[in-house]
Amino acid sequence: xxxxxxxxxxxxxxxxxxxxxxxxxxxxxxxxxxxxxxxxxxxxxxxxxxxxxxxxxxxxxxxxxxxxxxxxxxxxxxxxxxxxxxxx
Length: 88
Prior knowledge:
This protein is an all-alpha fold. It is built from 4 helices and no strands. Helix 2 packs across helix 3. It starts with 12 loop residues before the first helix and ends in a 16-residue tail after the last helix.
């Protein structure tokens, strides 16, 4: 199997949706900043293909790259565990 295409069959559909949503948000942030994928890759220090994989919501991308791209474009991320009051 090609590198980057490996995903666990145990990834819940909600997690897959969250990954796709983060990719879409990263793409929107990049476009709003007026940057192409090559510029984003240079700023993040990754290959342009990694940017494309993030934006497509591919679950095999390193989480650090995904969060790094979101931070690059000042896109806030929050984590909420089901059944847990986030204000505690």
